[in-house]
Amino acid sequence: MPSTIASTSTHHQPNQPPALPEIPPGYLNVMGYVDNSEVNGPGVRAVLWVQGCGRHCPGCFNSHSWPFEINQLVSVDEVVRQVLREPRNQGITFSGGEPFKQAVALAQVAKQLKAQGLTVMSFTGFTLEQLRSRQAPVGSQDLLDQLDILIDGPYVASQAIHSPNSPVSSSNQRVHVFNPALQHQIDWASDAVEIHILQDGQRIITGYRGHMAFSESEDESGMAFQSERGSHSATAPA
To answer: Exposed, middle or buried: residue 184 (CB in 10 Å: 0-12, 13-18, 19+)?
Structure first.
């Protein structure tokens, strides 16, 4: 069954750059996770939402992912085990938050999963040109080298697209297909909705233009990221 993590409600002051937390090497600061998604890229995929984004785009669908405070630390190996545990997962999609702020660890996840025959896709608020520049976040090229698909560019509300035929949320965003085998599989819709029902009855809503939401209040939605060593639940500081 899918599992996920509660979002933090802490917000940074306007015009104040977010303070990046100390994330141990080999770990990710995670906002949420689901298995068997069919609306976050081609085929059936795991989706990993990372915690932290400094853009604060108006109309952002995942504003709970903005704070950089530690939500839940999950090791690279644990993420890989989680994805491979579900046999229907054909790949993984990184969302957030801003995945390229944790590019080093995500590249490690991607490399291990690609070795097992899975595909890797990522959303980002950066443009591809920015990710290839000297100003790119650390590890950006390593993560780009592992990607089969990249959707780049920030969400711009004034350019929003509401169409069952569009894989992007606003017209400035672009789909970069690095794996020719997936060239004809860009068939998901940015306005599609998917609901995952957990064992405790809680529902996770995902897919709607990259959106992730809980059916209950965030204060009640502290959940567990499952691992072979048991489950680890953590609620971010308020």
So the answer is: exposed
